[in-house]
User: Fold Response regulator from Paenibacillus nanensis.
Amino acid sequence: MYHLLIVDDEASVVESLALTIPWEEHGIEEVHLAYSAEEALQIAEKVPIDIMITDIRMPEMDGLELIGHMRSLSSKFRSIILSGHDEFEYAQKAIRHQTLGYLLKPVDIGELIDAVRKAIVDIEEEWAEISSYQRIKHTLHANMPLLRNQLLSDLLQNKPIEPKWLEERLDMIDVSFRLGDPYLMMVVRLEEDFSGYDLHSLSLLEYAVSNIAEEVFEELFELWHCVTEQGYLVFLIKSRAADGLVRADSYAIKLQNHVHKYLKGSLSVCLSKIGTFPSEVADSYQASVAAINRNVGKNKSYFITVEDNPVQPEDSNVIQLYEPPLLPVLLQSGSWDEAAVKISKMLVLDDPSTEPSRDHLLAVFLYLSSSFTTIMASEGLPIEETLGEEFDLLLRKKSQLSRQRIFEWADKIIVSLKAIASKQLEDSHQQIASKVRTYIQGHLAEGISLQTVADHVGLHPVYLSKVYKSATGETIGDLLYRIRMERAAYLLQNTEMKIAEISSELGFLAAPHFIKIFKRHYGSTPQEYRNKS
Assistant:
């Protein structure tokens, strides 16, 4: 069903067209009325308009200009023009604005209905084309680099992917790697020669380096590459020859030379050990990045292999980001102290002699920001306000990043989140306590137990007991006892019910037991209490 907008500065025309035609019989769900172009645009900003019938001559803004503005809101809407002028110039302009009808006033209702039907058919045909196989195939081809980049990025992050689904995705994006294939990983870092480029230029530069790599390795190898969040270019290398991978190092050096010659910049390159696809991809990436980080500052441009740089646990700073338990999990579970320890390990605060690279600090900073904003969004917190002004400062002045600054900022965020979570927990505990009280007050006669209350609230009995005690300072048993005694006193004072009836009303199995409990609490039997009252 579609939305129709009728626009004319003559109110009688608008209301006549809206009310005299049974639009719902012609596929129109709702008809919107506007008496000026400005009012029409206000409606279109709030409601998705599919078809517009508009007068061509209106004060302030004519129908053709209105159509232009409407197209900026939705390129898929259809327009039909009404005109009191059978002029060639207007008709020409209407054609240029891709209108589906140019009808002369007074409007022939049959022609107008036919034009609206034609508009509906036109819309449906366009959407059919959009969803057609050819369009999907074209879209897939256009987005192929992005899809390839995303899948390899997922593998580098060790995201779980079912083998069958992975094979289907590899086929879909036309990547020749298959499960069990041997590979080498080449991790490339753009060095200081390129530091003067802005972000847009760096993206073009990464594209240029990737193209050079394809040309250099094309003779003997197939490449699959992506750009990681840390800014590394990562290439998976598959050999067309049985022993080709052992010769990949000479091609990697050739890549360095070509980039230096043609792009006037330096690359640092790390080549992994031969691994098995896809099970070892994440480990290869972590080991390669760790090897690169250990060489930061030693050379302007270097070529290393993971064999030459065995990964030592104390140097694997990047690995700390993705080692379990993951920071978002700790934050979501409210493990605040463990989260602070995790951040401390990421920043290597326990080893003052080791200074993490700026890339590593930036990676940690962005990872922390992402983790914090995830939990803020899930809790409905204002992200910009909760991150604080210091976040903007650190983000703008990346040269000012240090592990101590990052840790102090992160610690403030954790303290803030902890306080918010504590308040929310307190509120939720009070809500649970209120549910418990309401249930007990309404079901005294049913023989209440901790299990029946827990079943009603939807919590484990042991956990419910702890929550209620922390929220009120008394146990559920104390609450049940107190409510029974207060209710008993009220019934004895204000009703003529028999002692046995009151006992049953309060959920006691036998009146003598009720009398015993009542006397222990008030110092007299129920009858004596009633007589005194």
About this structure: Residues 5 and 34 are 7 Å apart (CA to CA). The longest helix spans residues 403-442. Residues 427-531 form a domain with the Arc Repressor Mutant, subunit A fold (CATH 1.10.10.60). Residues 309-317 have pLDDT under 50 and may be disordered.
